[in-house]
Please model this.
Amino acid sequence: MINTELLSQLVAMSRSLGDPANDYVILGEGNTSAKVDADSFWVKASGTEMRTISASGFVQVDFAKARAMLTGPDLSDDAVRQALIDVKIDPAAPGHPSVETVLHAACLDLDGVNFVGHTHPTAINMLTCSVAFEDAFAGRLFPDEIVLCGPAPVLVPYTDPGLPLAQEVYRRIHRYIDEYGEVPKVLHLQNHGLFVLAKTAKQVENTTAMMVKTARILVGAYALGGPHFMTPANVARIHTRPDEHYRQKIIGA
Model:
């Protein structure tokens, strides 16, 4: 994909996720990214507002330098700040990469992941900020949740945003891959928000919307005594049905 076309898709996706009607983010919350190639990716500049973002609101980042931060030694806050400036492809480009740039690098490095959307939906954070965090996401509720969001999410306990969070997410994603044999679509970050990993920008939007719907259903289910999760066998059945794979292609899952 030509770089300008990719950036246009990333801008459109980010504006959609930042639409106030969705209640996913406000002000400078959230960040998004897209893989250019094996050497670089675009990531939202720190503090930029998603609902009005333009191409100038993104910074192109060197993959190898971001990876080095992920697997390298712990860094002080000042060292991280400087390292995030140093990962820019063009040192003279305006803006600094998001504090979550290394986390985006860890996600975009995964097979089949070309776009990442990180938001703070109110509906999701009703659960991630509750004492029921792990219990609330311990199962799947309905077939379309599985079709869009996968058989299970990755749950990440609260971790200091930035490099420590990226390192914790990296460990948990690879633990998930070892268990499920596939890349996760959804990460729930305790007391923080939602990450969605996808092949296309549209898939990020669709999966985010479905996960927010699921969160609303969960809140309602708790009001009526608690969620009734599908059995693992039923989840596996939906996840592997050929007709559901066909539906995934049709609806952009």
